[in-house]
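Quick one, tokens below:
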């Protein structure tokens, strides 16, 4: 189900952000003795969420840019995504650096913060992405 089938980038982004938040917060609820089989669902939800969110976000940005600046808009969102990833990894990785005794609490906090950022993304998307935008089927 792509953005065109879902009715546009807004709905696709909301589905992806919701799945990503559920996956990250589900991972935060696991522990050191959680069986690997129970990690599959939150990991799949997290991956599904990112796979749905980013292409739809790119579509939403490119659609709102003037036609002659569509390439620039695409480049800016991709650069912002890369920068956000670098900063996110650095900040969340810093939470894990307190030594072996603080690894699991740091990991849990990092996952909760990442899940919370997806929840903030849901609010921002719901408030700012045009409901009526549609994506032409390809």
């Amino acid at each position: 189900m792509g953005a065109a089938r879902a009715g546009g980038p807004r709905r696709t982004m909301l589905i992806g952000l919701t799945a990503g938040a559920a996956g990250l917060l589900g991972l935060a609820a696991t522990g050191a003795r959680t069986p690997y089989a129970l990690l599959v669902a939150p990991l799949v939800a997290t991956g599904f969420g990112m796979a749905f969110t980013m292409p739809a976000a790119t579509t939403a940005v490119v659609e709102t840019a003037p036609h002659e600046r569509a390439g620039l808009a695409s480049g800016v969102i991709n650069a912002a995504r890369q920068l956000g990833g670098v900063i996110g990894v650095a900040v969340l990785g810093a939470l894990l650096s307190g030594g072996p005794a603080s690894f699991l609490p740091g990991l849990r906090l990092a996952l909760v913060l990442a899940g919370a950022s997806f929840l903030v993304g849901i609010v921002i998307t719901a408030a700012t992405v045009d409901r009526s935008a549609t994506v032409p089927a390809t």
